[in-house]
Amino acid sequence: MTGSDFLQLDPSQTPRNGRTAWLAERLRAAITDGTLGVGARLPATRVLAADLSMARGTVAEAYKRLTEEGLLVTNQGGGTTVADLPVSAATPPLPHLREASPEQPLLEVSSGMPDLTSFPRAAWLRAERQVLATAGSEELGYADPQGAHRLRVALAGWLARSRGVSVAADRVIITAGVTGALSLLAQVLRDRGVATCAIEDPGADGNRRILDYWMDDITPVPVDEHGLDVTGLAGTGERAVLITPAHQFPTGVVLSPQRRRELLTWAQEVDGLVIEDDYDSEYRYDRTPVRAVHAGAPERVAHISSLSKVLAPALRLGWLIAPQALHDELVRKRWATDLGSPALPQLALAQLIESGTLERHLRSLRLRHRERRDAAVDAIERSLPGCAIEGIAAGLHLVVRLPEHLDDAEITARVRQAGIQVQPLSQHRFNPGPPGLVIGYGPHPIPRLQQAIKSIGEAIRPLLRQR
Amino acid sequence: MTGSDFLQLDPSQTPRNGRTAWLAERLRAAITDGTLGVGARLPATRVLAADLSMARGTVAEAYKRLTEEGLLVTNQGGGTTVADLPVSAATPPLPHLREASPEQPLLEVSSGMPDLTSFPRAAWLRAERQVLATAGSEELGYADPQGAHRLRVALAGWLARSRGVSVAADRVIITAGVTGALSLLAQVLRDRGVATCAIEDPGADGNRRILDYWMDDITPVPVDEHGLDVTGLAGTGERAVLITPAHQFPTGVVLSPQRRRELLTWAQEVDGLVIEDDYDSEYRYDRTPVRAVHAGAPERVAHISSLSKVLAPALRLGWLIAPQALHDELVRKRWATDLGSPALPQLALAQLIESGTLERHLRSLRLRHRERRDAAVDAIERSLPGCAIEGIAAGLHLVVRLPEHLDDAEITARVRQAGIQVQPLSQHRFNPGPPGLVIGYGPHPIPRLQQAIKSIGEAIRPLLRQR
Question: Which domains does chain A have, with CATH numbers?
């Protein structure tokens, strides 16, 4: 096999920038969809570089990245072959797109899930092996309820680099995901007599239900094109608010600088707490990520986030950085709840951060998700002409606005009959508002995404014309 | 100084639950910031309790906790004063954090830990690899808060074989260890108006603190040579009790058949709940393990256990089988707390159970621990002649009874100077009782165990002769 035949890669298509990422992506796709089977031998870097008119280092770097992700292995003789733990094993079969009956699986383009087929299984296993080979037996005993020190140190560095959040490791609390952090905060607020909380409207359905479980009441505050309406918030009399400033769920709005200032002033004035769910901040495609709100007022903001969108929700690993005044009570509550998170996955994650594997994984995911976003936007413009698309600067989902006369729940039901599941914007609303569809593009390969959006268009277009 | 003036504590501010923690926190803060100086005398528990409208036991427990933390000392006359070298209490020391000084590592023959060096690292890694190679990507997403179905099926079989507990998989709730189960139960009981709970006296210090965190009050019930005194329990008026029937911690007593019957009759009569911590049941050396109490009255018993003593506490994996009437509320609380346990370790554990690896591991551990127990008993008979040894039929620890005139906390301090850490029986007591030492033999190779016991004997023997 020579380079030019290999995967039908066309030298004229290689981009001028980001060639390593481009090549890695092509190889990854070929391994995932089975074009390159287990054990398949890749061309020598010298050969492929010459055929694609690339620097040999670029090819070597792409191979290296995939090796680190566990997709490729380097053999004794120096050759490179496809590893025997392919992620393709996990790719769900393409569901039928037409005539879905209750028995048939739906193609779910709804919630903000990442591409779980890209979970770096081999890298994770390698990290676990490393941890099991080196951890002392005391690390298998009862641990610090606040989290493994090594992970807290690694996360403090990661947060400083990627989110502008500057904290010492002893202020990082490892939690069981965002839900774990939110439930601790809600309970500690309650213990202190703050038994209600403001939330964004529209806002994430899941978090709303968690808060609703622990609190006496939750108060919706409207979100407009600048983010949360802080004047509205002040009018509620609440002293705590849950907000997704980096990429609001579901609207995709980024909280404006003016609103950020207003929010922190509000918190100061009412002696309140801003709970910053740093949702989706990792996936900012066209500009540098906005800095966390926490950076502006660490004693007024509880910053929470997780790896559910970068690695997998099933890891149940997240973190919480809270004002000093709440810190001890939060750790104590975590202790009383379950003595803290399991140790081995914490140490494996620390290993992935320290080695730079997580950062590389995130870069490759960001690229993949951006391509999917672009494809989704193209397809929506073709299939749903005239509908505004919002929230595309970041994240794993976007919102398609529908004409005012349409009922998005009804539209969702109609689309579902075509075998596609999307979420109506109204599902995430407290009070009525303009209709829309929440479409998650994260988990889906481009052809499947295009097909799904085409089907959505076919289901809706007759209604658009009715107007 | 009377209670009401003391620290300006306001009786109307005492919280409804976690009163011990609240009071301990206030006292700790006053000692740390110097409000209570070295040598300052605290009000008698009776006086402070009356002034704050609290149970006297609550005040006594707060004092005791701070005494254990080294902030308070109890004097000859029974008074309590601020210790003269208070450790910095900026962060409240949590129960499982050890305090061995770096210069002088202590040989800790105390708590009931297993031999963590025998954690089957290779088998665990193999199971993880198997899981990562075969799990679908949906298993990396948000999972069932009740636990992975595959693990619940495997555990239902394991419980039927090893504990006589017969339940369907859909009744098994996977928890974050015994603490995770206990905190769920305590909260759900509270939600239903049962805000107090009976516990064994002596009983496990750790579980007592967890219950004390979530409950208004905990009521000690004496344990004698047949186990929990059920007549005493009935006299308390409590409707819930936490008990370790298989191998009582710390006395090592197995609940007698007569007491079992009494216990279940009591539960029926008061419409109550028995929380069965199936502590140590795996390590029964000389006879077949006793059947779980749960088997006799599944709708009156919540059966909880974990793998902390067979694999490692750091896994944070346990289970809970509750009466049907509580099941849905418990699962819902787990959902609201953290959406459930991480998936990969659950699947790895299922793999270990299905393949028989866990069973083989347990058999080999049981053999190893029995040899250690025999060696410990021999050494104690040589080094501490005349002291009775109790609780040796099962478990990872035993109790050495001391002559009545000795103070076991004092003995422990003396032994500590010889570089050996044991637990005084009084640490696990609520009300005063005969002195003893809790010696954990699980983690230690025989020569080290013999050496430690020899040192303990040398430290104590002079006192034994004094009598």
Answer: 14-91 (1.10.10.10), 92-113+357-467 (3.90.1150.10), 124-355 (3.40.640.10)
